[in-house]
Amino acid sequence: MVALARVIDSRVLVQLRLLGMAGLAFVVVGAFLVLFGKNPLLAYAEIFRGALGTSYGASEVIVRAIPLMLCAVATALPARMGLVNVGPEGQLHAGALAVTWGALTFGALPRPVFLPALVALGLLGGAIGAFVPALLRVKVGVNETISTLLLNYVIVLLVEHMVRGPWKDPMSFNWPYTPEFPDAARLSTYWGTRIHAGLWFALAAILLFYFTLRFTRWGYELRVIGDNPEAAGRAGIPIGRYTLLAMSIGGALAGLAGMAEICAIQGRLRPGISTGFGYTGFLVSWLALHHPLGIVVMAILLGVLSVGGDSIQISLGLPYATVNIITSLIFFIVLGSRFRRRATA
Amino acid sequence: MRRLGSGARHLDCSVTGVYLRLEGITKSFPGILANSNIHLEVGRGEILALLGENGAGKSTLMKVLYGFYRPDAGTISIDGRPVVLDSPSDAIRAGIGMVFQSFMLIPAFSVAENIALALPRLGVWLDSGQIRERLRDLASRYGLAADADAKVWQLSGGEQQRVEILKLLVSGARILILDEPTSVLAPHEVDGLFTVLRTLRDDGYTIVFITHKLREVMAIADRITVLRKGSVVGTVPRDGTSEEDLAEMLVGLRDVRATSFSRAAQASEARTVLSVDDVSVRGERGRAGLSHVSLHVDAGEIGGVAGVTGNGQSELGEVVLGRLSPDHGHVYLEDVDVTRWSTAKILAHGVGVIPEDPLRMGVAPGLTVTENMVLNERRRFMPGAGLYADWRAIRRAIEARIENFGLAIPRLTLPVGTLSGGNVQRLLLLREIGRRPKLLVAFYPTRGLDIAATRMAHDLLVAARNAGAAILVVSEDLDELFALCDRLVVFSRGTVVGTFKSGDVDAVEVGLRMTGGGKREAWSPSPA
Q1: Closest CB to A227 among B321, B364, B414
Q2: Is the pTM above the cut of 0.80?
Q3: B contact set with A (CB within 8 A)
Q4: Domains and CATH numbers, chain B
């Protein structure tokens, strides 16, 4: 009983401490705002008013939370078996590349065939983007943190190359983007907002993530690996196979986010389809301690910060970077505390 | 620096006078009394061997002495003055130096650079000329020759050990503690080390030599202190003792027959379940090898493997469980060659295992008791494609099983990491025996258990045996092996050095063979 109370206590404490640390980031940034003659309370109020005060703001929060949730699961799934996937950004772009290839190649297909095919391509592209570092880890022991991070640059630059070269729209007056996708390749949007069908993908991914971990043998074995790889190996759990699978599925979800971004928001492939969704998604996953419900909450919170960042630019003349600084400070403090705990453990 | 070389001269070279004294040292960890009221004395110019099995408390005691652990009770005094050692740097300041089994050298640095790091006062500039001169001095005095410019990674184990000793001498240590120093040495290097140690002793150094090898003790020690289960069994002078006496002290034999179990008679035509046939594994990177090991365990039999930890028992386990591929030989399970099978396949074939380090190797500490209980029966509890695990039903099944065996386990919803070591061991026993395996490989099955739980664990093992399981028990505890086993195989240096049938066991003989002693030449192994 006492031990049980201790466990619950420690979980609540961890959550509270995370919240406190997030608060700390606001205080630090606030101090800087004061230093530059701005009222931090006003700025923070504006962030939340801009994001949640209007129906447009609120809808944009959801729009941004969609790729964040998918990219967060892309990080969380491998993380639950002890792998650090910093690559959702690249995997998102890999998905977008595959989708664009499909959209430009099979433009004449009817929508009920075309869209599912593009979804499949998005999943496949992202999966390949994550399978490569996973294979490198399993076969030659390359650290997946480094390889996924570095691959981000490779894949993003590959997108740049494609939209400036082979796939450039001849009618674009030299702007770097592909021709617009046919209507049959566009995801539906709802309620006159930019909220799109990607929302269902994201929610389905979160539900599936929860159910798989909790209620399947597959998720059980994954959790055993994450908790004690030595014992997992001794129990005959194939760690290498799980590494390939968890990374690939994670990558596939990030690729799906890429598909949704170009098929719903942009309508074509161009540089900047992601404003760092992959990296922010990674942050969401770590802030949520890789728990599904926490991912939803944190994705919305960071969505709020992102939309609010736009509105403080307009109404207070503060740079968007203010929000970036808050986000990165939260991340820094949270991760710092995690590593400190590990060092003292 | 000041003391180096010249310090020895004004030291009393006779053996009189206690230099290092430990009084009433007690140190406990949660659930374990590692050191219990230990008294130890070493004089100047004396070599004391600290003899004990793994887990006897030698390392803990030396870590107390080196300031890693603070004792719960007891005092340490050096040259008659009590000292408080709160950290290794306190110990170094008090003149205590330690050579660990794994060396504390920087491989990319040269010998001179490594030695410079040990200087009590390291200036901004390295005076390499001075270091060289000192190295030459020490080399000629103690026979500790070392090439000052060689990089440490290029050196052999023996040469690295010499650098470690040089470091201690340079740093001004007067008390040298060597933890199993011969484990890294080739046989011909051992003699060299002993010569160095004798010279150091004659020059007034106080030396504590930790080992479990009887032969070395007889070769080098002036006096011998034997530890067993955290307490001093006795201290004897080398002259006037024998390997047999020491072996007896070491393994601590009680009346063996009194603890024997009543057991069902074995079927005369017993089926062989496990058969290890002429298996060899190359030893490398700190692993013991196996050399032509053959043994078998029948259904309804408990086979024991006796041996000091690190003599190939865990490698034997790894080979049987498909985690280590033998270079030579075969493993058969009920006449099926499983030598190249995967671990998963072997476990699924009805092999249970209680690993040597339960918390590290056997459980996922962050998962609950229930989740850990199903680890090796995942497919049974989550059948088919495993797409739906009904945890409530699983928990009921586990509860029923626990009730069946009458071995209490605290709440099933607790993470295993919150359980005591003894409870983790219970969990493993229950999990693996509850699977009704054909073969159970049990490493130290009662380690960490109290007397009542040990009794229960033994009952469980014997019940499983009587129900027809083949059980292989690996242990250092001869009492336990004698009580449980129908047959006993003695391991030393990765090879079988004796096979005994239950009933005609000679404990001293087994103890001697385990520890690599061997004065008794007249023995004939019964066929394995």
Answers
A1: B364
A2: no
A3: 321, 323, 342-348, 353, 355, 360-367, 371, 374-376, 378-379, 382, 386-389, 391, 410-411, 413-415, 418
A4: 6-106+172-250 (3.40.50.300), 271-514 (3.40.50.300)
